[in-house]
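Notebook p. 47: complex prediction with NDP.
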Amino acid sequence: MANYITQTEFDKVIHQEAYSNKNVNNKKYNEIDEKVDSEIVFEFGGPWGVTAIMLGFPTLMYYMWGCLYFYRGQLVSPFNVEFWQLVAEGAAPTWYSTKIYVSFCLFELFLAFNMPGPIVKGAPVPCLKGKQLDYLCNGVTSWYATLILSYIVHKLGWFRLPDLIDQFGHLMTAAIISGFTITIVIYMHTILQGNQHRMSGNFFYDLFMGAVLHPRIGKVDLKMFAEIRIPWVLLFYISVSAAIKEYELFGYLSPSMGFMILAHFLYVNACMKGEECIPTTWDMIYEKFGFMLIFWNFAGVPFTYCYSTLYLHFASIDNGAPLQHSLPWTIFCYTLLLTGYYIWDTANSQKNRFRMSVNGSHIPRNTFPQLPWGTLKNPTYIRTKHGNLLLTGGWWGIARKAHYTADLMMAFAWGFITGFETAITYFYPVFFVIVLIHRVRRDLERCSKKYGKDWEEYCRRVPYIFIPGLI
Ligand code: NDP
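Predicted complex, structure tokens below:
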């Protein structure tokens, strides 16, 4: 709270500073942005690689859920026919699960249209000649409305939250089918409208990366909606569902299940309370709305990041009591989670608020919680020839991706709270390491092209990527 400053103190100065610099060579900057933004780069192994991901990832989701559900986390042979028969039965699509999933998505969409929230300007869009789009940030009000309504419907018995964990397999199928359907509908609609951007010409690659850059229905930006309103909220409710079930079965909430509630609450709450920072992030500026983002957010995140919760739930049923760890181990897990969260939250907000100040779109908000050092008072930075300013203060002067390290600390804590009986609860941290390393490589290449010698200077001043002195 103490470091949360107002626009008059810093934003106007930094905004003028950046724009007085930009005005010198405005045209040149747009050309660099447009070049980087329109360049086609084959990622993820190109067309073959992305086709394998589109087929392989859903299969992997079924495999891991099947191992957890039917074999309590033991990795069975993927060629075991009986295993796949069990999975087919346990995850068959049902009307009930489809109704739950679709109603939830439509309800969140309804809130996105109707709840109050500030409108912030996004980063200048290169393919729109630097135009800044408006983003309605009603994530916090929608999140609180969801919490209140879910409490009411559960209490009144209209919908029992533990049904989510009981219906998990069927719900996952509803999400997977929705992920594919939305991908195809958005792709076809974009092509019919002639609204495609940065197309490679290969159907499978374009379906994976997406065709449209800024998908919108009226005032709602679908990409921003999909990034936070579905995946993290659903993930949180899967943990809530398991926790209620634990309470109903054993009469108390274990520290391990309490940990998962806290972990998922912190993540979803951070996304909502800092939503106004999202329009200037890489996904919003650069990534298109294809299978990668759509499937990942509608099905991948909620139904794979929850393995620790599922394991704790199944273990408690098997053992007749919730999984208990020693006090030191439990304290270690909580400490790792909260330390990671603090660094992650403040590092993201330092950079995003700095960027928003530069764009003239920073709006101080009092969403809960505002952490100390979340906004830098007089940050150091590099003025690039491109026009953008690169932050060298705060966490961004300590390591170039300290927020990724912090995110990984949280991810490993999610695994550690389940102990070491199964490898599946380490799927998320291990997968996340791979995702982030790949993301770092893509991002550093892109920044190097965009900022040239200034990026080299930034790397000289901040030589470490993840952990100072190590890597
Ligand atoms: P970053 O927040 O690192 O954004 C990278 C962009 O920030 C760069 O392309 C550049 O954009 C700009 N930038 C880089 N360095 C600086 C600097 N020193 N000063 C100012 N701007 C800079 O990455 P992400 O968008 O990937 O991640 C955001 C958060 O989301 C992270 O905390 C990450 O852990 C999390 N995340 C979580 C995932 C999950 O599944 N749980 C998946 C992916 C991300 P520009 O071109 O504008 O200069």
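Notes: DSSP finds 19 helices and six strands in the chain. The first strand starts at residue 119 and ends at 125.
Next step: compare against the earlier run before touching the bench.
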